[in-house]
């Protein structure tokens, strides 16, 4: 069963059309990486699913129920972690979670138990200070705890790791892996290493539409094209190659990558031999998520 | 109902921990003490100033202070208390829009109308408590020093002013759901009260606009009788309910 289905989603802010008929399917129990550049419309998509923004056109279904703007009943299935979660600064973490439990209608005993469990899970079990003194990482962890409070079927996280240091990022990713058993996770990001580490499915958002979508392994197989890494001795050789093969991607001072789809290996090697270019290294590489992302966003 | 109570508890906790409750408490108690204090000090003040007043041609004779002086002070001071109350509470909604604290509550499935209801209830409760504490203090001192029987229609006049405060709160709530910043809330609320006050300057409509409820002195001096206030009381209640009822659909469609 699909936990989230979006069909033909359009959203415009003034003159700018952010979403141009977005279609997206998130299967149950997946960790879904929603990838796109800054400003590509990831947050807009998420806020529309949450009923915080009105869609101009399109249908969104969460757990088989249609999303309605304003009074959004489908939010009972959803846990949401915004990119910068904001809490009531005058409360402690425990008081805030208890408040969240009360507004979602949890029973008192269950609420107390869930608060304790989740605060322990996110490492805030012994925290007695008010939220106004929390660091960014602590707020992010509390954000995950509140999002998981009512055992959501769908957890939506908007760039949960973007502003965190490596330790904070690891903690958040570990929590997301731990909750996968009970919950479908959708998280938007532009940090591709995070996606490769924990995601089962991915979708690339570019220019308001989904450029590529599927399971991570399927996508890598489907879009597999041989990639080669070239390393030259001199800068000038690199320039010469770039002039002859414009689709070459420079990845280092003397390094570049090209796809078999763009130019055949023999074609490049012939040019290298003809021009007497000194190669330090030539290597066949595995396609990375980054190369797929670059391919989607290139046009 | 459980979520509504939780929202109200949160609002009260915020009032308490942000210090607003203490400021309001001090404000209303201070105004309550000031009314009889100013009345009590009037003869002494006039005596002190008698020399300079006589030089400018004014003769000061002995002044007999009654509870009426204190109640006149009450109706002079309470608008200032209401203005301070609105200034202090004008960011009750807008602060949440600006910081983004409502996003998490609403995405947890909290119905939007409960946000409006809980904030309105707490504002009404605070105004009611503060106002009647202020009244009780003035009443107590007046009873101790003089006799409250001097003021006619006293209860009716103070109820009218309390009702006027509730109408202003309903306007504050309405503009809080429309505006994005507390400046907008203050301009909307203040502008509406001013506009209604100006309309009330026309004699034909004077008896039907809510700003008439501010005129407590006419009631305690017996210039107007209670019956003349009945239509404006009904109009004010209806206006307040309409403001509150309108704010809910506006808030339901608001982009948070």
Structure keywords:
heterodimer, A: 299 residues, alpha/beta, Rossmann fold, Alpha-Beta Plaits, 2 domains, four-stranded antiparallel beta sheet, 35% helix, 29% strand, B: 256 residues, mainly alpha, 10 helices
Describe, in plain words, how this protein is organized in 3D.
- The complex is a heterodimer of chains A (299) and B (256).
- By secondary structure, chain A is of the alpha/beta class.
- Chain A has two domains: 2-221, Rossmann fold (3-Layer(aba) Sandwich), CATH 3.40.50.300; 227-298, Alpha-Beta Plaits, CATH 3.30.70.
- Chain A is 35% helix and 29% strand.
- Chain A contains ten helices and 14 strands.
- Chain A has helices spanning 42-49, 93-103, 108-121, 136-148, 166-179, 192-198, 216-222, 235-244, 265-274, 289-298; strands spanning 2-13, 16-27, 31-36, 57-62, 65-66, 78-81, 154-158, 184-189, 201-206, 209-215, 227-232, 249-250, 255-259, 279-285.
- In chain A, a hairpin with a 2-residue loop joins strand 4 (57-62) and strand 5.
- The radius of gyration of chain A is 23 Å and the shape is elongated.
- Chain A starts with a strand and ends with a helix.
- With 256 residues, chain B is an all-alpha fold.
- Chain B has one domain.
- Chain B contains ten helices and no strands.
- Chain B has helices at 2-17, 20-55, 67-89, 94-99, 101-106, 112-145, 154-178, 182-199, 216-220, 230-252.
- The radius of gyration of chain B is 21 Å and the shape is elongated.
- Chain B starts with a helix and ends with a helix.
- At the A-B interface, helix 2 of A face helix 1 and helix 5 of B.
TL;DR of this structure?
The complex is a heterodimer of chains A (299) and B (256). Chain A is α/β, with parallel strands linked by helices.
């Amino acid at each position: 069963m699909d936990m989230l289905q979006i069909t033909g989603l359009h959203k415009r802010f003034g003159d700018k059309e952010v979403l141009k008929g977005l279609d997206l399917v998130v299967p149950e129990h997946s960790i879904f990486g929603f990838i796109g550049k800054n400003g590509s419309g990831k947050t807009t998509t998420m806020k529309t699913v949450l009923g915080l923004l009105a869609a101009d056109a399109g249908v969104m279904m969460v757990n088989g129920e249609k999303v309605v703007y304003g009074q959004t009943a489908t939010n009972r299935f959803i846990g949401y972690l915004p990119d910068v979660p904001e809490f009531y600064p005058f409360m402690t973490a425990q008081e805030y979670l208890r408040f969240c439990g009360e507004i979602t209608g949890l029973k008192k005993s269950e609420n107390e138990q869930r608060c304790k469990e989740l605060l322990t899970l996110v490492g805030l079990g012994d925290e007695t200070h008010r939220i106004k003194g929390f660091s960014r990482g602590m707020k992010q962890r509390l954000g995950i705890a509140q999002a998981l409070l009512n055992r959501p079927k769908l957890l939506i996280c908007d760039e949960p790791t973007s502003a965190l240091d490596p330790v904070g990022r690891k903690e958040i990713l570990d929590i997301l892996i731990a909750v996968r058993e009970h919950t479908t996770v959708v998280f938007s990001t532009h940090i591709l290493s995070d996606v490769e580490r924990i995601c089962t499915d991915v979708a690339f958002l570019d220019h308001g539409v989904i450029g590529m979508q599927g399971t991570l392994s399927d996508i890598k197989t489907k879009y597999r094209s041989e990639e080669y890494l070239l390393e030259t001795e001199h800068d000038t050789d690199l320039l010469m190659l770039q002039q002859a093969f414009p689709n070459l991607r420079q990845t280092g001072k003397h390094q570049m990558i090209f796809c078999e789809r763009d130019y055949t290996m023999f074609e490049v090697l012939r040019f290298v031999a003809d021009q007497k270019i000194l190669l330090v290294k030539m290597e066949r590489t595995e396609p990375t998520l980054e190369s797929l992302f670059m391919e989607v966003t290139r046009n | 109902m459980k979520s509504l109570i939780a929202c109200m508890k949160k609002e009260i906790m915020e009032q308490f921990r942000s210090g607003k409750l203490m400021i309001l408490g001090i404000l209303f108690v201070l105004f309550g003490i000031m009314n009889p204090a100013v009345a009590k000090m009037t003869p002494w003040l006039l005596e002190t100033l008698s020399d300079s007043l006589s030089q400018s041609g004014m003769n000061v004779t002995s002044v007999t202070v009654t509870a009426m002086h204190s109640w006149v002070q009450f109706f002079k001071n309470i608008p200032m208390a209401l203005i301070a109350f609105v200034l202090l509470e004008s960011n009750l909604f807008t602060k949440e829009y600006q910081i983004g604290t409502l996003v998490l509550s609403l995405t947890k499935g909290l119905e939007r109308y409960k946000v409006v209801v809980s904030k309105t209830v707490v504002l009404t409760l605070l105004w009611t408590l503060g106002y009647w504490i202020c009244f009780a203090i003035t009443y107590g001192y007046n009873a101790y020093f003089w006799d409250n029987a001097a003021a006619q229609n006293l209860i009716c006049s103070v109820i009218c002013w309390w009702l006027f405060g509730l109408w202003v709160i309903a306007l504050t709530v309405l503009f809080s759901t429309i505006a994005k910043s507390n400046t907008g809330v203050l301009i909307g609320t203040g502008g509406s009260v001013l506009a209604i006050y100006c309309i009330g300057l026309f004699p034909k409509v004077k008896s039907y606009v809510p700003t008439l409820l501010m005129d407590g002195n006419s009631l305690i001096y017996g210039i107007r009788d209670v019956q003349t206030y009945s239509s404006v009381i009904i109009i004010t209640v209806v206006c307040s309910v309409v403001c509150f009822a309108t704010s809910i659909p506006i808030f339901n469609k608001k982009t948070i």
